[in-house]
Amino acid sequence: FFFFYLILYFHTDIPCRVPSLNHKQAVQPYVRQSNSIATIDKSRLVPESAKKLAETIHTVEQPLVKNKEKPTSGPKWFNLPKTVVTPELKRDLQILRMRSVLDPHRHYKKENGKAKIPEYSQVGTIIEGPTEFFSARITKKERKNNFAEEIMAAEKESGRFKRKYAEIQEAKASGKKAYYKKLKAKRARPMK
């Protein structure tokens, strides 16, 4: 600012006045001497409580990070806790997204966009009520620890995925080298 003021002063024909400081605005010393006694203005010293705070060790948190970290979703959403991402949860969520493949007779709405893990969620176990029929419940033997294990157990029973995989591989091989070798082998068999 001062440099600009000097340039303005030297390059203009208008007379400019240099501002002067008021002597009342000057910094007053906090130690005063009258006769041979020196006194201190205690109102201008650092209070004892502030000194103690300055001597203690404390961490400084960034305000942006502090605001973002909310442990729950709030009372409007029943205080759902923040999602703790584990490999098991990731796998279960991935299977849920691909649930349309699990059952050919059920159709689900497609998810648009990139799938992401919810910020607040909770995993629970459904407890059947006493009024439900026993035939509608899953037996203790069929119950598994997580969703992925249940799917694998159901696959062992039905063998549907294995069968579908074999069908796809057969369709892929159709018209290729292995297909023609198999066809030639069939033709080359002697007739009985």
UniProtKB/TrEMBL annotation:
GO BP term, pick one: RNA processing
One Pfam annotation, family name?
A: Fcf2
Where's the Fcf2 pre-rRNA processing C-terminal domain? Answer: 70-164
The cellular component terms of Gene Ontology attached to this UniProt record, alphabetical and capped at eight, are: nucleolus
Q: Which InterPro entries match?
A: Fcf2/DNTTIP2, Fcf2_C
Which controlled-vocabulary keywords does the entry list? Nucleus
A single Gene Ontology molecular function, please? RNA binding
Q: Give the main location.
A: nucleus
- List locations, semicolon-separated: Nucleus, Nucleolus
Which named protein is this?
A: Fcf2 pre-rRNA processing C-terminal domain-containing protein
